[in-house]
Amino acid sequence: MKKSIVILTGGGPAPGMNTVVGSIAKTFLAKDYRVLGLHGGYKGLFSPDPNFCELDFICADSIFNRGGSYLMMSRYKPTEEDFNVNFNLDFFKSNNIQLLVTVGGDDTASTANRIAKFLAAKNYPIANIHVPKTIDNDLPLPENIPTFGYHSAKAEGTKIAATVYEDARTSGNWFVVSAMGRSAGHLALGIGATCHYPMVVIPEMFNKTTITAEKILNLAISAIVKRKIMGLPYGAILISEGIFHSLSNAELESCGVKFTYDDHGHPELGKISKAQMFNDMIENKLKSLGMSVKSRPVEIGYEVRCVTPIAYDLMYCSQLGMGVFKLFSEGVTGCMVYLDINNTIKPLYLKDIQDPTTGKIPPRGVNMDSDKVRQIFDHLCHYITPADYEAAKKYVANPEEYDFKKILNW
Fold this sequence. Notes:
The chain is an alpha/beta fold. It has two domains: 4-148 and 309-353, Rossmann fold, CATH 3.40.50; 153-305 and 367-408, Rossmann fold (3-Layer(aba) Sandwich), CATH 3.40.50. 40% of the residues lie in helices and 14% in strands. The protein has helices at residues 17-30, 57-63, 80-86, 89-94, 106-121, 150-171, 186-194, 213-229, 243-246, 249-255, 274-288, 311-329, 350-353, 371-380, 389-392, 404-408, and strands at 4-9, 34-38, 52-54, 97-104, 127-132, 174-179, 199-201, 235-240, 295-300, 335-339, 345-349. A seven-stranded mixed sheet has the order 3-2-1-4-5-10-11, with helices on both faces. Strands 7-8-6-9 form a four-stranded parallel sheet, sandwiched between helices. Strand 1, helix 1 (17-30) and strand 2 (34-38) form a beta-alpha-beta unit. Helix 1 runs antiparallel to helix 2 (57-63), helix 1 (17-30) packs across helix 12 (311-329) and helix 6 crosses helix 7. The radius of gyration is 23 Å and the shape is elongated. The mean pLDDT is 92.
């Protein structure tokens, strides 16, 4: 029987999914392998009747430059019972599968790590290679290498945010914009800085103080007052949705937030409008201060997940897809494939980056000590400093409460 590989995509979509899948398929088909695509993420591996398709060159060639994911995705998380009872080894045997390729973010990578250890413990001769994707850019790849999809999502988010900022300028209003990013602020910071937003709020900013809703609001007010002092009655605030993950349960309740949770235990942030909630909170704060400022909410979320990949991700994802074959042909398994700064394909072993207690892959946050990040907050953002206290008293009684660096204890 002809040798086969199987590819699955897990988690949420990111630009470049089809580029990775199409490039893997083209490369292995040229080496006379069958290429199977598994629908439904990991669920198919633990089902007696998995939903899969066979990918040929025409299919691979028709999808490689499209957004979205040809292979249907899910956030299915297998239980220990699934591994012990429901793992469908017959699917692998009957199709002579030599390699399982998983494409996904931190949760998909963590499950890939579990599968790699499971296959090794059972002595199943099936290689496993993971391709790291997420628009959040929060997988811990070496040398700050980005995850695929991040740059395309940032580019699309920048188009939206730039248009919003033009509206603010035109109408003399403020906008409160929320950007995706479950546990890290890369996307929000990238979009906000690119558009020169006067305030960007990400979880990593609170590296020297406890994050609270009041501090978030005070940062927003700081920017609004500073711009008034500058004679600018408009602006925009970019807030990462990951802020919610850092707030305590008591803080969330005080904000009126009630979450449902996915299979991995994460709040399903897409079910509520973070921008609307933050905007309401800021409006109430402004009203209590007696300040007349109009603000409008804008969400940057699902709009950026399935866009057509930009040139960067088209090339990057093609290299990762072909890189899967390189590592497989070298006998490598149980790893993530990545492209280093010298454009060399390398493996990053999942066991080496997992949390020793939970087995999960820890997220990579924004490095607040880098020159890139420091310059954004030192030079692009607008906020109250001690030099503004006297002028700020026209708008707030206690300007020091809105001093950017005092709020953050920087």
